[in-house]
Each structure stands twice: as structure tokens, then as C-alpha cells.
Write a structure and sequence with these properties.
- The chain has 1 helix and 8 strands; from the N terminus they run αββββββββ.
- An 8-stranded antiparallel β-barrel has the order 1-2-3-4-5-6-7-8.
- The chain has 156 residues and is mainly beta.
- The termini are far apart.
- Strand 1 and strand 2 form a beta hairpin.
């Protein structure tokens, strides 16, 4: 069931982006989350997100991000798959066309066979740098589950 939900979610997010106007206010991000605590992971959580910027004037821009994550944790010698969805509004401060910092507070819903799905708050703070017009790198901290995320960002 959760595979079907994850697949449907990504089809909707990617499909919606295909019908939007192309004025470089859409971003796809793919990152790897690295834990800041001593948990053992067989697969660090992978994050795939879509961001749409609604307002972009001067130095500030406002948008929203939706995405999902998946990882494999090793607890007491047993492997546990985990994943979930996240949705949060983001505020960007644009230093230049190539570099911005961003922050956001939203929620995520973990999906796991061991735990019931319930909403959790999520806070994030990060920075992004575009190496070329449509491709950049980013890093951000997730303050809800103490992880740093490193990844790439595609603008279209």
C-alpha cells in the first residue's frame, strides 16, 4: 500500500510540474540526509522534492516544497525500511541570481509498517548555489530529526 501511495504522490507532483509555465520558478531537488546522531543506517535517507515559487520579487521569494524520503535503518541487528512525505512553505533570501538561503516550517508524515502514520512538525534552514543557470547544489539542516542534507537542485 505504501509503495502505491509513494508512486502516486510522485506522479502527481512531477505531472503537475509538466503543465506549469516555464519561467524558472520550479525546482526539483534530490539529496542524501546524513544523521547527526549515532544511528546505524544501511541506506541513508534519500529525499526527492519538488518546489514551486509563487512570489519572486527583488531579494525575497516565497514558495512551497513537497516531497518524499526513504531509508533503511539498522536497529538491534534488524533492518527497518522507513519513509514518508513532507510539505512546507519556504522563504528564500536571494543574495544573487546564483546564491540564496532559505528556511521553512512545515510537516512530515512518516510511513512505516512498524509505526502509525501521524504528522510531525519539521523545520529546515539551508543554502543553495547554482553552478550553471539550471543546475545547483544545496545543503540544509533538518531540526526535527537532526540530519544534514546534501544534494543537487534543478531549475526549470
Amino acid at each position: 500500500m505504501k509503495k502505491i501511495l509513494l508512486t502516486a504522490f510522485f506522479i502527481v507532483v512531477i505531472g503537475a510540474s509538466a503543465f506549469a509555465q516555464s519561467n524558472y520558478n520550479k525546482f526539483v531537488k534530490f539529496g542524501v540526509m546524513v544523521p547527526l546522531r549515532s544511528d546505524t543506517y544501511n541506506l541513508y535517507p534519500l529525499d526527492l522534492s519538488f518546489e514551486y515559487v509563487f512570489y519572486n520579487k527583488s531579494k525575497f521569494s516565497f514558495g512551497a516544497e513537497a516531497g518524499g524520503y526513504y531509508g533503511i535503518n539498522n536497529i538491534d541487528g534488524e533492518k527497518h525500511n522507513f519513509g514518508g512525505f513532507h510539505l512546507k512553505p519556504l522563504v528564500h533570501y536571494n543574495f544573487t541570481e546564483k546564491f540564496d538561503i532559505f528556511t521553512g516550517i512545515g510537516f512530515y508524515a512518516p510511513v512505516s509498517s512498524e509505526y502509525k502514520t501521524k504528522l510531525h512538525w519539521q523545520a529546515t534552514l539551508g543554502a543553495r548555489y547554482f553552478i550553471i543557470k539550471n543546475f545547483g547544489v544545496y545543503t540544509r539542516g533538518h531540526f526535527d530529526y537532526n540530519m544534514l542534507e546534501f544534494g543537487v537542485s534543478f531549475r526549470f
